[in-house]
Structures are given as structure tokens and as C-alpha cells.
Specification:
By secondary structure, the chain is mainly alpha-helical. It contains eleven helices and five strands; from the N terminus they run ααβββαααααααααββ. Helix 2 packs antiparallel against helix 4, helix 4 packs across helix 7 and helix 5 crosses helix 8.
Length: 259
């Protein structure tokens, strides 16, 4: 049974010579909603003093305008509030659907990495024919985690870990329905949620360093994390092409077996 250090070692080996590609693909995945980005946001604030419209992406303000209620722009924003709200909803829905496809595509990219294949940038967009399944899967996961969280925070966290392998399952089995993929993830993660948590927490030092670089370091940490998670999925699913590549020897040293 592999440990967190084993999964990190597999990830580093898989990324060797492919770091820049992984960084670019990871960045694109985040910008398109497949890596936890906040996504585009349209915020309209109307008060007694005036109206302000702000367009943000990935938490950063891209454009902002406003004025008093008696000014031309303020009156326009107030009169167009319904249309602005409708546009915001449409943008959010499109980004959610796009992100669900990219999320599964990014999982496929990282599986290609740990399988020692030549990962393709096109993998990000390979699941558009299955956009309904990926969207429903993401929607159900969000809904289930929310419902469990309403009961108490801990059940919500546990639910998130139970569904963590869903995108990897869909990346390999797009013929499954969203519910079937989620059920497989729950079965796969039964008794293994703590192992995934331990692996994720082992990146804490890297996360702190990323924060000290104002987030720039996350460009490199993100591919590292996702590649390690793909390696974790390979063990959980029993589909490791390099099952004996890393073992922990006595004294804690890792040895690479002959393949």
C-alpha cells in the first residue's frame, strides 16, 4: 500500500521533462473552470448613494463602473438591473458547464501523465460530446456536499472525499451515467478517505510557499497535486500500469523496480 510520499514521487517522475506543459495546461484548466476557479462574476450593487457594476474573473476585478442614481450611468444600471442579472445567470451556467467538461479533461491529462504517455493539451476538451454527463455529475456532487454540509460540516467534508474520484472515473468511462460514476467513487473511497486527506495535507508546506510567492508558486504546485491524485486513483482503481515502480524499502528509502 502506497503512502503520500510514494504518490508524490510518482507525480514528480511523471512530470519530469513535462513541467512546463503541465503548468500551462493546469493554468488553462483553472481559467476555464476545471480547477476550482471562482469563474466570471457580474456584481451589481444599488444603494441610496448610487449604482456600481463590477465584472470579476478568478477573484480579480476586470472592469468596474458606476455613478450616482442621478447620473447617466447610474440610471442606466438601475434600469438594466433585470437584464444584468439575467446575463450574470447565463454566464454562470455556461462557465459551470464548461468547467465540468474541462474538469474531466484535466483528469484525463493527469492520468496520461502518470501512465507515462505523451499528455495532450487536447485532452482538456475531449469530453464535450459528454457535456451532459459531466455537468450532471458536477451538479450532483455540489448538491450532495451542500446537503450533507447543512446537516453538519464534517459529513459535508466526508462527502467531498467520497466523490473525489468521480472525474477520473468519467475520464476513463464516459459511457457511465453521472450517478453511476459517483457511486463508483463512493465505493472506491470507502475506507480510503483518510489516505487521500493525508496525501493532500502533505502538500501543506508547498501551499505555504505558494502563498509567500503571492500565488505564483501555485502554478507549479497545482500540477504536482493533480498528478499525485491521478496516481492515487490508479492505485484505488487497481489500474496502475507501473504498479511496482515505487516501493518503500526498509529505512524509508524509495527504490525503483525494474519494469
Amino acid at each position: 500500500m502506497k503512502t503520500a510520499s510514494d504518490f508524490r514521487a510518482i507525480a514528480r517522475d511523471a512530470l519530469r521533462g513535462k513541467w512546463m506543459t503541465a503548468v500551462i495546461v493546469g493554468l488553462v484548466a483553472v481559467l476555464l473552470g476545471g480547477g476550482g476557479s471562482d469563474g466570471p462574476q457580474v456584481k451589481l450593487n444599488i444603494s441610496e448613494t448610487g449604482a456600481n457594476l463590477r465584472f470579476a474573473f478568478a477573484g480579480q476585478t476586470v472592469y468596474s463602473t458606476g455613478g450616482s442614481l442621478h447620473s447617466g450611468i447610474g440610471a442606466f444600471l438601475v434600469g438594466s438591473a433585470v437584464y444584468i442579472l439575467l446575463a450574470a445567470i447565463i454566464i454562470a451556467v455556461i462557465f459551470f458547464v464548461l468547467g465540468s467538461v474541462i474538469q474531466v479533461g484535466y483528469a484525463r491529462f493527469n492520468l496520461q501523465l502518470v501512465d507515462r504517455l505523451d499528455p495532450s493539451f487536447d485532452a482538456l476538451f475531449a469530453y464535450f460530446p459528454h457535456w451532459k454527463t459531466t455537468t450532471i455529475a458536477r451538479l450532483l456532487q455540489t448538491l450532495y456536499v451542500l446537503l450533507w454540509t447543512l446537516l453538519f460540516i464534517i459529513p459535508g467534508i466526508l462527502a467531498g472525499y467520497s466523490y473525489a474520484m468521480t472525474e477520473y472515473i468519467l475520464a476513463e468511462h464516459p459511457e457511465l451515467t453521472a450517478s453511476e460514476a459517483i457511486d463508483r467513487s463512493k465505493q472506491m473511497m470507502s475506507g480510503n478517505r483518510w489516505r487521500l486527506f493525508c496525501m493532500q495535507i502533505s502538500f501543506l508546506g508547498w501551499d505555504i510557499l505558494s502563498a509567500l510567492t503571492l500565488g505564483i508558486g501555485s502554478l507549479w504546485v497545482r500540477p504536482y497535486k493533480h498528478a499525485a491524485t491521478a496516481a492515487f486513483y490508479r492505485e484505488m482503481s487497481g489500474t496502475e500500469p507501473f504498479a511496482n515502480a515505487y516501493t518503500t524499502a526498509g529505512g524509508g528509502e524509495r527504490q525503483e523496480a525494474e519494469i
